[in-house]
Write a structure and sequence with these properties.
Elements: H1 3-62, H2 68-109, H3 113-133, H4 140-160, E1 163-165, E2 178-184, E3 194-199, E4 202-204, E5 207-210, E6 212-217
Parallel strand pairs: 2-6
Antiparallel strand pairs: 1-4, 3-6, 4-5
Helix pairs in contact: 3-4
Length: 220
Amino acid sequence: MSKTTTNQNETQTETEDMFQEDQEFQETENLDETEKVTEQVSASAEATEEGDDSVDEETEVSDREPTVEERAAHAESKYKEMQDRYLRLNAEFDNYKKRMMRENSDRLKYFNMELIKELLPSVDNLERAISHAGDENSDLENMIEGLQMVYKGMQEAFGKFGVSEIESIGKEFDPNCHQAVGMIESQEVPENHVAEECLKGYYLHDRIIRPTMVRVSGKG
């Protein structure tokens, strides 16, 4: 065998040895990594088991039935809360009732104030007419004119508050709004119709304040 062939064989042997060493080193590293992953998985599993145990303990605590003392304390707390609410509502309702009674009393007390304000000018004019009537130099015609103005002012004041006269003369007798005080014969007014008005009647909107006192046409 030549020297060159011997050197080649030695070189090949060294190469194979080096390759085998690298392969063994790679297998060792893979084994170490596998062991690390296995340890991590085991640690995670243990942590999960511990977490499950704590969750189970909490679930057991939450699912536990309350004791008699706890129920009694809860019921007492609810009772006090409802009692406080009732007392507050009762006090508020009592104040509301007193306020409404006071407002209604004031409303009834001053209910006619606006009507009186409207009538005051007519009262003033009536006083002037009475004062002039006592004067020796008073003119009867002017006094009558003044009284007519007073009457007109009062009718206008009544009209603002829905007061109106009941029409009677020539109307058929209606016991709902007419009050007969007598009967007279009349050629101008048909029988059972109002022939004479003795005292005016008035409506307040659609309600009768007082009926008209009338004499009805008929046979004597």
